[in-house]
Specification:
disordered N terminus; 2 domains; Rossmann fold; 16% strand; alpha/beta; 6-stranded parallel β-sheet; 394 residues; 8-stranded mixed β-sheet
Length: 394
């Protein structure tokens, strides 16, 4: 008789930690949703995940003076045991991200964490002056606006360039959310092309989300023009308001989002221009406002991805955005494209959107659905699987 060979125990799933710098912040940004969606897709793909948080409800952030002392006197922050957070398993490193910035500013080099049992991969969903020893470090670059258009942001371009260069020198692998940003990285830094991979950003509305959108409180009139995001000059708000007024449209323009560091003048440009300004609101109410909109107006001057473009397309809403650069790349052939610097061009496109026939609207939204599918969870999983397969062979 033949003896059965003992079965080989299955390998444990690869463990990926993600920084929690953005997930706990109110008024979630594109990075916030990128991190959350990426983590869910990792779990569905068989990875074990954990967040690296810097505070919890019972451990609030400390004063700037205490953080300064910690950054200078305690070179190794303590990583807690795993615990359950509202976003999934997590570990706490108290004040980590603020301490890291102070450490980088005054010590002049990246803070390196040394956990006793590191994960297989540490994924920093935003460039930070921290790395983890004993594992692969991935860093997502969402945009390089401080370097390509420094007049549109208050981030110091010299400090930003130095941080990216230091990360390059520490042999991390970079992920970008658009090919435009990947090409910018290659043109601005000396780095091997194989060290940068474009995965784009996953955009996924599951059935729970779709039902929650339908049930959400209505916050704006149906068939409005919608812009949402941070209200700042980079988003081209003032030209948009000028164009809306000149177009003589009776369709209200709704601006939804928190004020940026530079606050554009959001007042209507004439007595007949209907403008509604709302602060950041509940996520599902925002998506209901988008779903019921006549169109998304998103003539932003600089983006790394342009999340509202794909969210609108996924909800069957026509989109107006700028040609050239990231916004045209992400929109593909499924949006109305204009010269975002040209008010006359903006006016003409607003008038076109105002006069869309049902057939014209159906045609553009069908193109939008096809384009949105490229950024779906399923397609993102395919790209990530190919990336991991190729990465592990290196």
């Amino acid at each position: 008789m033949f003896k059965e060979k003992p079965s080989t125990p299955p390998l444990p799933p690869q463990e990926v930690w993600l920084d929690g710098r953005n997930v706990g912040r109110k008024n979630g940004t594109g990075v916030h949703y990128y991190a959350l969606n990426h983590q869910r897709i990792l779990q569905e793909s068989g990875f074990k995940t954990a967040w690296l948080l810097e505070n919890t409800n019972d451990r609030p952030l400390q004063s700037g003076f205490i953080r300064f002392l910690k950054a200078l006197c305690y070179p190794q922050p303590r990583i807690s045991s795993p615990f359950s957070s509202e976003w999934g398993e997590a570990r706490l490193v108290h004040d980590l991200y603020r301490i890291a910035h102070v450490h980088y500013r005054y010590r002049g080099h990246i803070l390196k964490l040394r956990p006793t049992s590191p994960p297989n991969i540490m994924h920093w969903t935003y460039p930070l002056p921290i790395l983890m020893e004993g594992c692969v470090n991935l860093v997502t670059i969402h945009d390089l606006i401080p370097l390509t258009q420094p007049h549109l942001t208050r981030i110091n371009p010299n400090k930003f360039h130095r941080l990216i260069q230091d990360l390059i020198n520490n042999h991390v692998h970079f992920i970008t959310v658009s090919e435009t940003v990947r090409h910018q990285m290659l043109s601005l830094f000396h780095i091997e092309p194989e060290r940068i991979t474009t995965l784009y950003q996953p955009v996924h509305f599951d059935e729970h989300t779709k039902e929650a959108i339908l049930r959400a409180p209505q916050i704006v009139p149906e068939n409005s023009f919608i812009f949402y995001g941070r209200i700042e000059h980079r988003k081209n708000i003032e030209r948009l308001l000028d164009a809306h007024a000149i177009s003589n449209t009776e369709t209200p323009l709704v601006l939804i989002g928190p004020d940026g560091d530079d606050k554009p003048d959001c007042r209507p440009r004439n007595p007949h221009s209907k403008v509604i300004r709302l602060p950041w609101c509940d996520r599902f109410s925002l998506l209901r406002a988008l779903k019921e909109a006549k169109a998304l107006l998103f003539p932003s001057l600089a983006e790394g991805f342009g999340l509202p473009i794909i969210e609108a397309m996924a909800l069957d809403v026509p989109v107006l955005t700028g040609y050239g650069g990231v916004t045209e790349e992400i929109a593909g052939n499924a949006a109305f494209l204009c010269d975002a610097m040209d008010v006359t061009d903006l006016v003409q496109n607003i008038q076109k959107l105002d006069a869309l026939s049902p057939l014209e609207r159906q045609t553009i939204t069908q193109k939008g659905r096809i384009r949105a599918n490229f950024f779906s969870k399923t397609e993102y999983q395919k790209r990530f699987s190919i990336f991991m397969s190729n990465f592990q062979k290196q």
